[in-house]
From TrEMBL, chains A, B:
Residues 10-202 form the Diphosphomevalonate decarboxylase-like N-terminal domain. This is Diphosphomevalonate decarboxylase. Pathway: Isoprenoid biosynthesis; isopentenyl diphosphate biosynthesis via mevalonate pathway; isopentenyl diphosphate from (R)-mevalonate: step 3/3. The keyword Cell inner membrane does not apply.
Length: 429, 429
């Protein structure tokens, strides 16, 4: 008997223009448009297998081998229901099986049965297993790549003839920023204006191939305290920050236009300027919230000071800004820079943030095989070393080097996360 | 021969509605009105002696015993020149000496000479010695109390028949926030609209006696790095923060009205809400600056978390907010609270921030004679202790307990900081 199953992987994305605030919390419609860079799945990804089977008695979901409840009316349930609805609307209703079979009596019964089951996929329950290849402790949000992989695997399973933008409408209802992980390269989430959210979707600003030298260095920062969740945090900002409305109406629209133009022109200096300003403004409106929300800590601040000084030196040499920091709802820094500067920036970070052995998987071979714990670090000529103090080992507990990447990938059956029994192959995280 | 000299002390003030941004940097005209509480000079003060003498060959100034250059066209020079101008305009030009003496030939020549010299005070050079009773290391801005004491001592020396508001116009040109130290109690600095700044002055919202139970606990926080000076920082915010303009036009005016009403009604809950929101918004626009400005650090954030939780418990009990944090251009917290709550708050702070011996001068006798290093600290019932971690000794390196106070005081000759030779009595800081 046929197994109806598909496996997909989806990338992480890190916003340059930040999403912070919903105008509709159920449909997840944002108060402003946002724009991100999709990171390479070769390094950071969520992989998801979805299977539909008439023997399944309910929809079930496993994250990193651990079963998660699919709450009725919750975000996961919504995404699954929407994908089933699309399956019915775009595939099953357009290719009704019964009449066709009646008109073609030469179809063998077993084929008919199999086709029949396949065409009824939307009526079957699904088992879904998802795995993130980056540890939760890295502090990277997995909801964007996770919901993008979920929607992508179901789209593949259901053979949906729809665009990534259409899928982004559904991923958005799982986690807002997930909609941006449906594309590779440089991606805008257009806020839209319709009450039903049907125009609040992701579009490609430029593909990965447009600017493949865009690299990213993630500095994983330790934090003592659990920050405010972004879901509750952003709504508190919407309700209490007087500055947010100004940001939404008068700042973001221009920035969206300007950074899109900078990306199209491959103008890194401008890209960096806008990215850093928007990260700062997002954290500013978080701070303008009652009670205030802080995501950055003293280590985050020190990394900002290093990048500001690094750019000052570079601008003074007439080279423009060479790096852009950005911070999401946590203390981790993501530093965008062009390929040619990554080594210099890694050395700069190592000068102030010594690492434990193995804390950097040097996938691009920057350090020539030397372990990161043995690298002293260095600052560029003219750099004022006093802008930050040297921290203890572990203040930045790891570095991840990656670059702009492609959109969701369809994987082969050999990558399936589900066993013959319909349960996850491994239960370990 | 008569000595023309006067000594005055002036208080520190800590703003609830923050001053951040100038529309005129020379006249020091602010982009928005602000409001502060004047703190008690019994605890924190600047004391200044000004002397005029025909034998002096130039204007000279000593701060904490160390001579400071009076730069031509600088802020100190401007204040001294303005005070001399007022002396001439308000006193000397209105009481011309020569004609009077001629009409009264029974005046003895030496008296005539003395009076004559006195009436020409504005033409003499001055020696000025100023002393702050709080260490620079405390991180408290001394410019406000310093310029208020300077202007007050000169006003006394020159016997100026002018109001504190008029003097505030001059102190403002020394350091913007100094204008608010010309009054005790609760003080507004009205931004004004005239280009010459003649309506940008301080006014009393309510005197000290209106709400004497308003206490303040200053948590002196260690910091590794020197922050951006407020003078250069605020201008960078004016030039680069898109959010500042919204704050100026649409947020501050209402807050000024609301907090003034709260003070008049002695509504601590409302006073606290506005004070905390405005502190947060000031730091938000600092963060929205390019490059961003940070004044608060992880210790500051932890104190905010403690006060937020302290208020949550209190609000839940139906008591409203009982404490308000506020942060100026540095990591120190100033916590406003009513007298009855100070002990509880000191114990709360001590629970998370153990102190060195002698790090708290317990002027109100809260700890019953026990040294602060020996006090364990405590949290109120229902307080979630997990909102912050316990810090090492020295993270908060000292506590200062004070309260709302009066305006500048005229001191007796025995308090003079200048010796017979016209030089500071002590050269030690």
């Amino acid at each position: 008997m046929a197994v109806y199953e598909a496996t997909a992987s989806a990338p992480v994305n890190i916003a340059c223009i930040k999403y912070w605030g919903k105008r509709d919390t159920k449909l997840i419609l944002p108060t402003n448009s946002s724009l991100s860079v999709t990171l390479d799945q070769d390094h950071l990804r969520s992989t998801t297998t979805s299977r539909a089977d008439p023997s399944f008695t309910e929809d079930r979901l496993w994250l990193n081998g651990k079963e998660e409840e699919i709450k009725e009316g919750g975000r996961t349930a919504t995404c699954i229901a929407e994908m089933k609805r699309l399956r019915k609307q775009e595939v099953e209703d357009k290719q009704p099986n019964e009449p066709k079979v009646k008109n073609h009596p030469h179809h063998a019964p077993q084929i008919l049965r199999s086709d029949h089951l396949g065409l009824q996929l939307s009526t079957h329950h699904v088992h879904i297993a998802s795995f993130n290849n980056f540890p939760t402790a890295a502090g990277l949000a997995s909801s964007a790549s996770g919901f993008a992989a979920l929607v992508s695997s179901l789209a593949q399973l259901y053979k949906l003839p729809v665009s990534p933008s259409t899928l982004s409408l559904i991923a958005r209802q799982g986690s807002g920023s997930a909609c941006r992980s449906l594309f590779g390269g440089f991606v805008a989430w257009e806020q839209g204006t319709l009450p039903d959210g049907s125009d609040s979707l992701a579009v490609e600003v430029a593909p990965q191939s447009h600017w493949p030298d865009m690299h990213a260095l993630i500095c994983v920062v330790s934090d003592d305290k659990k920050g405010t969740s972004s879901t509750s945090g952003m709504q508190r900002t919407v309700e209490t920050s007087p500055l947010l409305q100004h940001r939404i109406k008068h700042v973001v629209p221009q920035r969206m236009a300007d950074i899109s133009a900078a990306i199209r022109a491959r103008d890194f200096d401008k890209f960096a300027e806008i990215t850093m300003r928007d990260s700062n403004q997002f954290h500013a409106v978080a701070l303008d919230t009652e009670p205030p929300i802080f995501y950055m800590n003293d280590v985050s601040r020190a990394i900002i000071a290093l990048i500001v000084e690094y750019n000052r030196v570079s601008v003074e040499k007439g080279l423009g800004r060479k790096a852009a920091y950005t911070y999401d709802a946590g203390p981790n820094a993501v530093i965008y820079t062009l390929k040619e500067n990554v080594k210099e920036i890694v050395e700069l970070i190592l000068k102030y943030f010594p690492q434990r052995e193995g804390a950097f998987k040097d996938v691009f071979g920057l350090l020539g095989g030397v372990d990161v714990a043995k690298v002293e670090g260095n600052v560029p000529e003219g750099f004022n070393e006093a802008v930050a103090k040297k921290f203890d080992v572990g203040a930045v507990k790891g570095l991840i080097h990656t670059k702009v990447g492609d959109g969701p990938r369809a994987l082969g059956a050999e990558e399936s996360l589900l066993g013959n029994d319909g349960l996850p192959k491994t239960l370990a995280a």
